[in-house]
Design goal:
Blueprint: H1 25-31, H2 46-63, H3 65-72, H4 75-108, H5 112-117, H6 122-132, H7 140-152, H8 157-170, H9 172-181, H10 187-210, H11 229-260, H12 264-272, H13 274-288, H14 295-301, H15 307-316, H16 322-332, H17 334-359
Length: about 350
């Protein structure tokens, strides 16, 4: 008869075996609820940083007022300040009015309105969308999110592209500013309207013919959507004023510097060659990135150049510049911007030359 050893105490019961190893510390920690992480220390707000920078700048101006006053009394600086202030004073009312109207239309007019108003055939929708750009009195900063909303709501990309390019260039605020900036050349208003609309429709038809869907990334929802009308309106106003106003100041400074510092022989040499003049002002429009509601006053200050070269400046700037390239890349994707930017630059120059040859 076989003799079996008794099972250890607790082997078949719920009692723990004596001498058994304790559970691992890691296992006990994994079962325990995670400890609350310490809250990160609050970072300084951007407004406080801006206030500190402003205070430091004012202190530097107070301490250096003697050398600054002496530098401003120089004839070159007086000429620079005259051009700078003249450009700002002329352009600022149009900039403010355009920003307010642009924010009102972008917030209170539903994007579905444009989708319902466009024809179903893309070939016909392109010129209709280009003409619809005249009802959005704002700068190019406002046209990019509106065009993104159109694509997101099912509008054909060719029509949205035509609207994107025409809206900053042929709206009433921009055309009125052009008429004020060129009082002795009223044909500049018609030339800007026709040339810009021609380029916008050409790019829309070109995209319809050669564009591919994988080049275009569907835009995300606007960060103003979901907010109240008042909050979205003032948020759009603050955004456009900060961006467009800043670029206006930079453009006025560049125009004043070019007018006061650049040797007259250089400007005369560039202006005397029609091809060089058109290319120079086209590149200048890309680099300066001036708001379309104020660029006419900067172009009018470049008196050495021909009207066709100035027209190239006015057509290229609202369609492709540094800030527009960044905004288009963020809205529609980098692949779209890398293809769309150079093509728009070339087509805009050709459109300006053809329009200038006929109307100027």
């Amino acid at each position: 008869m076989a003799i079996t050893k008794p099972a250890p105490t607790g082997a078949d019961s719920h009692e723990p075996v004596r001498g058994a190893p304790e559970p691992a510390a890691g296992a006990a920690k994994s079962q325990a609820p995670p400890a609350a992480r310490p809250e990160p220390q609050s970072q300084p707000q951007p407004q406080s940083r801006s206030s500190l920078i402003l205070i430091l700048l004012l202190l530097v101006l107070v301490l250096m007022q003697g050398p600054i006053r002496g530098a401003l009394s120089a004839p070159v600086m007086q000429s620079w300040m005259t051009v700078f202030v003249a450009v700002l004073v002329q352009a600022l009312p149009f900039l403010v009015l355009g920003v307010l109207l642009s924010a009102a239309i972008a917030v209170f007019v539903p994007p579905t309105f444009f989708a319902r108003a466009l024809p179903s055939r893309p070939a016909l929708a392109v010129p209709v969308a280009g003409m619809a750009g005249a009802v959005l009195p704002g700068c190019e900063c406002a046209s990019v999110p509106v065009a993104g909303a159109l694509v997101r709501r099912g509008v054909t990309p060719a029509a949205a592209i035509a609207f994107l390019l025409s809206a900053p260039a042929i709206n009433p605020i921009v055309l009125t500013a052009t008429a004020v900036a060129f009082p002795r050349n009223p044909e500049m208003v018609l030339a800007r309207f026709v040339g810009s609309l021609l380029v916008a429709c050409s790019m829309g038809w070109l995209w319809q013919r050669l564009g591919r869907t994988d080049w275009l990334r569907m835009p995300h929802r606007s960060h103003y959507e979901g907010q109240s009308k008042g909050a979205a309106f003032w948020g759009s106003v603050r955004h456009d004023v900060m961006h467009a106003g800043g670029f206006l100041v930079v453009g006025a400074m560049a125009a004043a510097t070019l007018k006061a510092v650049a040797p007259a022989s250089w400007l005369r040499t560039a202006a005397d060659n029609p091809v060089v003049a058109i290319l120079a002002l086209s590149l200048l429009a890309v680099l300066l990135s001036i708001c379309s509601e104020a660029d006419a006053f900067v172009a009018a200050s470049l008196t050495q150049f021909s009207l066709t070269a100035k027209l190239a400046f006015l057509i290229v700037g609202p369609m492709i510049d540094l800030k527009l390239f960044a905004m288009q890349a963020g809205t529609f994707g980098r692949g779209f911007a890398l293809r769309f930017g150079p093509a728009t630059f070339a087509v805009a120059i050709v459109g300006a030359v053809l329009t200038g040859a006929v109307l100027l």
